[in-house]
Amino acid sequence: MPSGCLEGITVLDMGQMVAGPYCARLLATLGATVIKIERPGVGDVARSQGPFPHDQPDPESSGLFLYLNTGKKCVTLNLGSRTGRLLFRELVARSDILVENFRPGVMERLGQGYRKLHRLNPRLVMTSISNFGQSGPYRDYRATDMGLLAMGGYMYVSGDPDREPLRKGEYLAQYLGGLNAHVGTLGAFWHALESGIGQRVDVSIMEAVATLIETSITYYAYKGIPRKRFSVRSGIHPFGVYPCRDGFVGIQVVPARMWPVLVEMVGREELRDPKFATGMGRSQHADEVDALLLPWLLQHGRNEIYHMGQQRGIGFGLVCTPADMLDSPHLKAREFFLALEHPQAGTYRYPGVPAKFSETAWRAQRAPLLGEHNEELLCGLLGHPTSRLAEWREQGVI
Fold first, then answer.
1. Closest CA to 39 of 104, 93, 106, 96
2. Residue 326 buriedness (CB in 10 A; 0-12 / 13-18 / 19+)
3. Domain 10-212+337-395, CATH
4. What residues pair up with 127 in beta bridges, in sequence order?
5. The CATH number of domain 239-324 is 3.30.1540.10
6. Per-residue pLDDT of the chain (398 residues; tens, 9 = 90+)
């Protein structure tokens, strides 16, 4: 088996919840040795978040934690203790990258600010992910994922123009922040390889969200008026998510020349009326178009409609449930999901990575137990005698 792209690279993951751990997880999938540092007895906040097997809360079985921390090793360290800080600095001296997503100023209050760590390890790349970045008037403000989607402008362009803005599901802003941090980290690491000098990567989650709405910002800069949320009645029809026999499908007839193809597939002569011949005409008579399409849609299933459209060159969308995703023949063929066995949670399937490499492998290993690798890393890597572990546990260091 070929090695990963980042084989031999050591990453310290001090992240909590989503953004930082996701960035570090992506580095782990590329072959880096990622050492997750957690608080003794408590661990990452994500350990307290569900889902849990059989709805039984267990810090070793959190679905969120297990996904975000696949492929990592875990050391527990109390950075509030002198010994904990010394052990941490020993790890920093042997690392290439450090990822953290504390509030700005926390690392400095722990005595582990970038300048101090840079003096210890000049080649270190330190990636700091925060809501609004390490500078600016909002630097210390708190924010939820919804708040970041709103502040980043993404909610303003989401939803129907006649309704209130909509947020998206899951931790979209957090994952986007982690993804941008991953790219920024790789860039800084490449520079460190070439120059021998590390640097700090300052990632603002709000700014990461704002990169999604570049066209709306450009529209405002050019015209001086905000772009309205896109309507299904804005000159393209049919357009949107429609019900069918067993769920929903996404329908968008683009390019316009595909309209006769859709009419032929549906088999309703009424749709050949000249008033429906153009996108604007269909938009003006959208209710009539939908009323003619709906009976046919309700007679057919999602997969049937999806493949019928694809066979005719119409890019229908299949609104997949989680079960659909896990059973997808396409994702199975690409081996996207991987089954990982965990000693506490059991065996579950997790999303892999959407990038395939022709010459290098990507790593697939389960998430660590809290403090699972204390002996391997503190004694094996740093060289401390194993007899110190019991002492450090008693003192609350690990």
1. 106
2. middle
3. 3.40.50.10540
4. 99, 201
5. yes
6. 467 899 999 999 999 999 999 999 999 999 999 999 999 999 999 999 989 998 999 999 999 999 999 999 999 999 999 999 999 999 999 999 999 999 999 999 999 999 999 999 999 999 999 999 999 999 999 999 999 999 888 888 887 777 888 878 889 999 999 999 999 999 999 999 999 999 999 999 999 999 988 778 877 778 787 777 765 555 678 888 999 999 999 998 877 788 999 999 999 999 999 999 888 899 889 999 999 999 999 999 999 999 999 999 888 888 999 999 999 999 999 999 989 999 999 999 999 888 888 888 888 899 999 999 999 999 999 999 999 999 999 999 99
